[in-house]
Design brief:
The structure holds two protein chains of two kinds. Chain A is mostly beta strands. Chain A has no helices and eleven strands. The chains are: A mainly beta, B mainly beta.
């Protein structure tokens, strides 16, 4: 069982739809990252959160420390948003990132 | 400046051979990470370097794997006596300071062991 669980594993949406990807973890963390992996394999860091909410363009990330849960939202989705979205956490006790399995998002025109 | 670069981009080797993968971090970044991503699987942490501190090697899967970093510059990941299960994309990332900073990923090296 992965310590970091993402849902859904796969998500298909129509252009313009509001997207939510969820991430839950089991123990206390110092930070949570959302990453985007493009079809060609390149990885981009989207957000790093330790509390509250962050917004960048059409992307919003929230975290609830008490519930050990984070969500990544995409408003007005576009086909170029198609990618794998990865949640990763850094536990309080360590320096490494522990990754979720990723959510494959496909946005159709 | 330039982002994180890795070389080679692709490497095909025969089982039992040694391979060396290189990572050039962003200039001025003191932290450097190596990760592995097997086909269809998630990312796995391998090793973390922070400045001149002893590296966190806790993710290295076996003693065939080793990594070095000279100061705050280039890092090499060496895999000795490669096995087919070592086939994966090896990703390097760097960050400005400690592990609380945003990580910037390189394009990866795709290793295929025949």
């Amino acid at each position: 069982k992965n310590e970091v669980e993402q849902s859904p594993q796969n998500l298909t949406a129509q252009e313009g739809e509001f997207i939510t990807i969820n991430c839950s973890y089991s123990v206390g963390i110092s930070a949570l990252h959302w990453l985007q992996q493009h079809p060609g394999g390149g990885i981009v860091s989207l957000f790093m959160l330790s509390s509250g909410k962050k917004k960048h363009g059409r992307l919003i990330a929230t975290i609830n420390i008490q519930e050990k849960h984070s969500s990544l939202h995409i408003t007005a989705s576009h086909p170029r948003d198609s990618a794998v979205y990865i949640c990763a956490v850094r536990y309080i006790s360590g320096s490494r990132l522990t990754f979720g399995e990723g959510t494959q998002l496909t946005v159709n025109p | 400046g330039a982002g994180v670069s890795q070389s080679p981009s692709n490497k095909v080797t025969e089982k039992g051979k040694d391979v060396e993968l290189r990572c050039d971090p962003i200039s001025g970044h003191t932290a450097l990470y190596w990760y592995r991503q097997r086909l269809g699987q998630g990312l796995e942490f391998l090793i973390y370097f922070q400045g001149n501190s002893a590296p966190d090697k806790s993710g290295l899967p076996s003693d065939r794997f080793s990594a070095e970093r000279t100061g705050e510059s280039v890092s090499t990941l060496t895999i000795q006596r490669t096995q087919q299960e070592d086939s994966a994309v090896y990703l390097c990332a760097s960050s400005k300071g400690t592990y609380t900073d945003t990580q910037y990923f390189g394009p990866g090296t795709r290793l295929t062991v025949l």
